[in-house]
Prior knowledge:
The protein is of the alpha/beta class. The chain has helices at residues 25-35, 54-61, 93-103, 123-134, and strands at residues 17-20, 39-44, 47-53, 87-88, 107-111, 117-122.
Amino acid sequence: MPQRWDKLKSVPLQNVGLVSKSDKIPMMFHELKRTRLDRVIVKDNENLVGIVTLRDIFTKLASKKFSNISPKSLSIASFMSENFFHVLEDNTIDDVIKLMAEKNVSGVPVLDKKRKLLGIITKNYLINLVANELKGYV
């Protein structure tokens, strides 16, 4: 089990779904089912441009703006957040914990030095990590 001071390049990361801005919402749900996460990363060509969570989808679908539109016809771009945080493979797990607490986010993509997506770290992953560390102390 990884320790909080380990660099992310030595930590087994969670796979995350990758969708295109132009993909429709059903593609996102396919990726969510495949990865068993509540978010996908959005790309435009080869660039990472955003993130979409289930919360984003349900919040916007509940708004009046989308009330008469079939979700199947909507593109990922309608729901994605372009302001997302990421970490690099040389960051430590402690760095991720601090960033997530400071920015109040529940998951961050992990990129390599060339900005290629390696995976994601979520709060659930971190909770399990810390819980396993504490087993010997409690």
